[in-house]
């Protein structure tokens, strides 16, 4: 017996990237978020941690020099808030199914 599998393909329409330059909320499918803070401080609100699967990872980075980016959760508390304020700063936000955890805050 020979088993064969179809190789999965990446559909570029499924890309889950969000670009923001003003305070905004991420949707559950927007998992890579690039933020431009050159026009002023930005607050990024993550979706309710209970609406995404436990272990869901959201990657957030500041890609311009400017003002601070504050990451906050929706619905449930954020175990660790993050404020990023320099180009290249990034955070990895993980849902535990009820709360957001900031596993890395790289400055």
CATH architecture classification name: Sandwich
Strand percentage: 35-45%
Residues in helices, as a percent range: under 10%
N to C succession of SSEs: EEEEEEEEE
| Annotation field: number of helices | 0
Poorly predicted parts? 3-14
Examine the coordinates and then state which fold CATH places here, giving the name of the CATH topology.
Jelly Rolls
- Described by the principal axes of the CA atoms, the overall outline is globular
Assembly state: single chain
CATH superfamily descriptor: gp9
Query: Largest beta sheet: what is the strand line-up?
Result: 1-3-5-8-9
User: Strand pairing plus helix content: what structural class?
Assistant: mainly beta
Mean pLDDT: 79
How big is the Rg?
Answer: 16 Å
Strand segment tally: 9
Please outline the helices and strands.
Blueprint: E1 17-20, E2 24-25, E3 32-35, E4 42-48, E5 57-62, E6 69-74, E7 82-84, E8 90-95, E9 100-106
Parallel strand pairs: 1-3, 2-4, 3-5, 4-6
Antiparallel strand pairs: 5-8, 6-7, 8-9
Give structural notes.
The protein is mainly β. The chain is built from no helices and nine strands. The protein has strands at residues 17-20, 24-25, 32-35, 42-48, 57-62, 69-74, 82-84, 90-95, 100-106. Residues 3-14 have low confidence and may be disordered.
Short description:
With 107 residues, this protein is mainly β.
What are the main properties of this structure?
about 110 residues, mainly beta, Jelly Rolls, 5-stranded mixed beta sheet, 4-stranded mixed beta sheet, globular
């Amino acid at each position: 017996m020979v088993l064969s599998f179809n190789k999965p393909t990446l559909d570029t329409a499924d890309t889950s990237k969000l670009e923001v330059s003003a305070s905004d909320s991420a949707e559950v499918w927007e998992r890579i978020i690039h933020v431009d803070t050159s026009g002023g401080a930005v607050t990024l609100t993550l979706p309710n941690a209970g609406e995404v699967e436990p272990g869901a990872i959201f990657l957030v980075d500041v890609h311009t020099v400017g003002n601070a980016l504050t990451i906050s959760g929706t619905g449930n508390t954020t175990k660790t808030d993050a404020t990023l304020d320099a180009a290249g700063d990034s955070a990895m936000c993980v849902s535990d199914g009820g709360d957001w955890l900031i596993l890395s805050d790289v400055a």
